[in-house]
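Request: Not sure, any thoughts?
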Amino acid sequence: VDPVRREVTSYEFLIRGAEGGSPEQLFASIPPEQRHRLDLESKAEAFRLARRLGLKDVKLSVNLLPMSLTGMPGAVEQLVAQIEECGLSPGQVVVEVTEQEAISCLEVFSGAIEQLRRAGVGIAIDDFGAGFAGLSLLAEFQPDKLKIDRGLIQNIHRSGPRQAIVRAIVQACTAMGITPVAEGVELVEEWLWLKAVGVERFQGYLFARPATAGIPAMHWPERVVPFLLPTQP
């Protein structure tokens, strides 16, 4: 979201297990040889849901493990076909590459990223600061968005080390023309500190909680002006 303008700039679609577990729990329960196929094929359901919800004029973000792009033959073509079959535009979609998996062949991965770009699909690095690739992945290609992991965001207004790291990330994004997004924002104090250092895009419970197969209710925090009672002279 962009809280200053009170705009939802994109919706992120996250896969869950039958009991609502995290993507990590779901993928851990699946044989490795099936993991990337499920990851890629599940995006079709995300795009069908976006169509049912009527999300035509907003960005749609989906997560993909890096090896889902490189280990599955024709992965990019399949993804673009899924988008178009649901009546969506590739330019409306942002693929968030997660850092929860090491990239075994950077050259092949870079080729897949370039294919996505040529098709018009946006690219983001998700959970930056928490996974395998870190700065090396950022150096290899410039994503459209960089999503700063919630581990760096939590209580940032009270943590000097986190503040130093996030300032450096924001400065690097500014220099490279990348939009930084703060993930996991839950406190007004976190939001205000991040806004003060130049972050304009936010995601977290402060603004909305996830909704199953639906559009979540939004909450826009407001600055409260204290009311002062007159005093006797």
Q: What stands out?
A: The mean pLDDT is 90. The beta strands are 10-13, 59-64, 93-97, 122-128, 145-148, 179-182, 201-202. The two ends are 47 Å apart (CA to CA).
